[in-house]
Every structure is written in structure tokens, then in C-alpha cells.
């Protein structure tokens, strides 16, 4: 027999999927949900916790639960780490070379944005090497509306240390797509690739805890050096 909070979670998820609670609107308050479903606050909180884990909502302190765009979550995201953190945790002996740091517009076509969107950003292109061998080109667009300026010292080091430790940003979640593509001539030269070799491209959009989108990233990997390992938890959503 299903628990009460399972039934509430399924009902709320169905309402989110079918647009009864539209994207970027708030769910009813915990008190309102208690009245609506005739249950306790503890039961409602368990249901909301499940929706949070599944990526249907984001909790915003002092405001409630905002509905996320479920259609964006097409690939499991098990964690958000900076390259510096990966380097330290995996002892990769890597180095970063800053190629470009300049203001640019976010390319709409690259990230499937509306053509009307004109998003000003700081463009950062960096080459990652391991044991002096080039393996990754990281391209970041940091929205100027959120982070107005990125010093060169930051671009050469760790963006996330700067965002979190110096600016106090609360980085929360990301969406990712992974594709295999032909590299541009510029990318081929940086990665020292033969003409017939493909690259693996990971494109992501990263959000703050208040659901503000602030970062677009393209990570271009040499396919022969690319290995992707992920962990995804099976969650059954009955009746959807």
C-alpha cells in the first residue's frame, strides 16, 4: 500500500507535468497543501522532499517551492564540480592556460535559446592539459547580470572559488547535454587532433539556488581521452 506522501508527491508531479502548476510559479504553501490533502506538515514535507530530489521543484528560503522546467532534465546530473576540484580529488597533475577573456553575447543557437535573447556575458576560454597533453577546452559564458566582472587571476584559477567564497553565490544545480561533434579548426589545433577525429562536447547551464541562470558552459573533450562515469538513482513515478 502506498504511503500518503507518495500519493501527494504523485499528484503534485502530475499537476506539474500537465501545467496546472506552471514553470517558474510557486506551489501552494505547506499550510495550504496540508489543508488541500487533509494531512500533516510532516507528510507534506516528505512529498516535497521527493519532488526536490527528482528535479521537479527548487526550494527557495522564505518563498516556498518554485516549479522547474522538467523537460530540461534529460540527462542525470550527479554533481557540479570545478576543474580545479576534479584535479585535486583525482590527482590529475593538470594545468590551465587562459586563451580568451572578453565580453561577448551568449550564442543562442549553441544553447538552443530564443533568437530574441541577447544575453551579455563574460566569455572565458581555457585549455586544460594533463601531463602537458591538451585534453579539454572549457568555454564559459558567465552572465554579466549576475557577475559583472571576472578578474584575469580568477579566470586563470577557479571560477567557483571566486563565485562561492568571494561573491557568496549559492550554486545549486545544472542541466547537461552530451554530443559527439566535429571540432572547429581552432579546437583541432588547440587539442592537437588529426583532421578526422571527433570531440565530445558537454554543454551545461548552471543555476543558483534561487533558480537564477548564471552560467553557460561548453567542455570540448578529446574523444580518445574521454571517459564518462555517472550515478543515477532509480525513482519510480507511479501513474505518470
From TrEMBL:
InterPro entries: Bact_HTH_transcr_reg (IPR050679), Chorismate_lyase_/UTRA_dom_sf (IPR028978), TreR (IPR012770), Tscrpt_reg_HTH_GntR (IPR000524), UTRA (IPR011663), WH-like_DNA-bd_sf (IPR036388), WH_DNA-bd_sf (IPR036390). GO terms for biological process: negative regulation of DNA-templated transcription. This is Trehalose operon repressor. SUPFAM superfamilies: Chorismate lyase-like (SSF64288), Winged helix' DNA-binding domain (SSF46785). The keyword DNA-binding applies. GO terms for molecular function: DNA binding; DNA-binding transcription factor activity. Pfam families: GntR, UTRA. Keywords: DNA-binding, Transcription, Transcription regulation. NCBIfam families: trehalos_R_Bsub (TIGR02404). Residues 2-70 form the HTH gntR-type domain. It comes from the Bacteria.
Amino acid at each position: 500500500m502506498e504511503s500518503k506522501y507518495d500519493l501527494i508527491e504523485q499528484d503534485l508531479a502530475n499537476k506539474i507535468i500537465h501545467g496546472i502548476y506552471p514553470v517558474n510559479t510557486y506551489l501552494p504553501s505547506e499550510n495550504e497543501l496540508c489543508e488541500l490533502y487533509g494531512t500533516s506538515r510532516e507528510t507534506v514535507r516528505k512529498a516535497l522532499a521527493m519532488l526536490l530530489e527528482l528535479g521537479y521543484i527548487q526550494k527557495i528560503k522564505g518563498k516556498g517551492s518554485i516549479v522547474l522546467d522538467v523537460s530540461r532534465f534529460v540527462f542525470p546530473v550527479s554533481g557540479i564540480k570545478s576543474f580545479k576540484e576534479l584535479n585535486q580529488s583525482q590527482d590529475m597533475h593538470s594545468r590551465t592556460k587562459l586563451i580568451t577573456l572578453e565580453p561577448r553575447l551568449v550564442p543562442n543557437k549553441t544553447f538552443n535559446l530564443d533568437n530574441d535573447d541577447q544575453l551579455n556575458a563574460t566569455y572565458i576560454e581555457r585549455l586544460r592539459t594533463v601531463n602537458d597533453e591538451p585534453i579539454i577546452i572549457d568555454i564559459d559564458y558567465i552572465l554579466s547580470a549576475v557577475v559583472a566582472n571576472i578578474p584575469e587571476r580568477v579566470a586563470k584559477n577557479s571560477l567557483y572559488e571566486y563565485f562561492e567564497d568571494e561573491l557568496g553565490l549559492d550554486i545549486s544545480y545544472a542541466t547537461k547535454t552530451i554530443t559527439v561533434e566535429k571540432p572547429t579548426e581552432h579546437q583541432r589545433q588547440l587539442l592537437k587532433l588529426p583532421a578526422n577525429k571527433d570531440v565530445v562536447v558537454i554543454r551545461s547551464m548552471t543555476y543558483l539556488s534561487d533558480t537564477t541562470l548564471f552560467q553557460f558552459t561548453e567542455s570540448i573533450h578529446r574523444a580518445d581521452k574521454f571517459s564518462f562515469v555517472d550515478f543515477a538513482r532509480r525513482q519510480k513515478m507511479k501513474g505518470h
